[in-house]
Structures are given as structure tokens and as C-alpha cells.
Amino acid sequence: MGHIAMSPEARVADALREVIPLEEEDDFLPANERRRGRIVGLVLVDIVNGFCTVGAGNLAPSEPNKQISTMVKEASRLAKAFCEKNWPVFAFLDTHHRDKPEPPYPPHCIIGSGEENFVPALQWLEKDPNVTLKRKDCIDGFICSMETDGSNQFSDWVKSKDINVVLVVGICTDICVLDFTCSILSARNTGRIPPLEDVVVYSNGCATYDLPVHVARNIKGALPHPQALFHYMGLCIAKGRGARIVNSVSMV
């Protein structure tokens, strides 16, 4: 039988996993945390049409994508379970004004385009009283939660719900999810977001976009963004900053 050559991305991914093995926790059980007296809050990051629905915009997938569809499915499962139990849920929705670009990215999630709204599987969250919604106009949701009076909507949510553990899912693993995770970890370390103790990132509940080298070469100024590699690197960096990375979440 002939040898099947590995793609350059696959070779790099294997090398990366060997050099930087990511030891994920096998399971995370929010109910166990509650039995220990710790409240878990679910955070959904940018699970909107403009990033997740095929053909919805400049930054949406051009064809069905397994990593993104798995993320949406898992986020929907967790959101339903949390809301049924009346456990706290916070959702960020990437939303931009047409006259305020966000370089280096092309226009996306413009108000009124439909890109800025939840994917169909999560649209019910807009009317659920258990959910706190925050439309954001920059990558970092924590920064976007800062109000002119010096308060922070996300920090206030954590405090008002007495949340000790935040469970993070969404898109993109290495961009909005990562920046938000790093910011709240820094806020926790400096006592700015009490009573938060742990930040948990669910790997299968996160996804990023795919921009292969051969496609990026035809886009002026574009940086190649192999999906599997950047997803893995995002998780590694998050763990290096102090997040717990889990590969499954059981709602029992």
C-alpha cells in the first residue's frame, strides 16, 4: 500500500502537540461545583450568524464546518440545560456600526445586517429571562463591558449572581474567546471581579475560522489561519494564563 503524505498543517499540528502537550480535564460537572457551594455561570461568546452561519458574511464559513457546527451544538445544549435549571447565562453578541471599522478584519456583524444576531439554534435566548445579553463592538468582551461611569456589566453580573466559576464557550477560540478569558483572569488576579475563582474553557464548545494558506495568498494582507492549529494554540495560551481546559461538560 502506498504511503499517504501528511499535509503541512497536519505535520505542524503533530509537532505542536508533541512539544506543547495540552492536558485537558476529562469532564466538568457544574452540578458538582454547586454541591461544593460554588456557583457556575455560562458565558457564550459571539455565537452569531456572521461567524457561524454558512454564507452569512465576510467572516462566516463558506461551507459547512464541523468544528463550528459542533461548537454551536454544544453551546445550545449547555444553554438549554442552564436555563432549565435557572443557572446564570451571559451572552456576548458581536455588533458593529457601519462607520466604525475593526481592522484588520473586513466589515462584519453590522447592525441591521442579521449577522449580529444569534444563530438559529440560539435565537430563543433573546427572550429568555435567565440570560443577560451584551452587544459588543470590539474583540474583548470584558473591555466592551466597561461603562462610562466606571462600572463593568460583566463584573456586576458575576457579583450579583455570586458566581465562582465561569464556563466559557464560543468563537473564535484564539481571538474573542481568548482575549475575554485572559482579561477576566487578570481581573480575578487583581481582585476586580469578585467572587470569581475559576475560568473554565470547554474545548469542544469553542471553534475558530479556517483560512488555508492557498486561500490567504490571494487576499492582500491576509494571514493564513489554519483552523485546527489556531484552535489548539488558543487553548494552550488560555491554559498558560491560568484557565482550566476541559474536553467535556456533563449536565447531570
TrEMBL record:
**InterPro entries cross-referenced by the UniProt entry:** Isochorismatase-like_dom (IPR000868), Isochorismatase-like_sf (IPR036380), NIC1 (IPR044717)
List GO molecular-function terms, semicolon-separated.
Answer: nicotinamidase activity
A single GO BP term for this record reads: pyridine nucleotide salvage
Checking CDD domains in the record gives: cysteine_hydrolases (cd00431)
Q: Could you tell me which Pfam families the record lists for this protein?
A: Isochorismatase
Ranges for the Isochorismatase-like domain? 42-212
Q: Write down the superkingdom of origin.
A: Eukaryota
Q: Which family does it belong to?
A: Belongs to the isochorismatase family.
Q: What is this protein called?
A: Isochorismatase-like domain-containing protein
Q: Which organism is it from?
A: Platanthera zijinensis
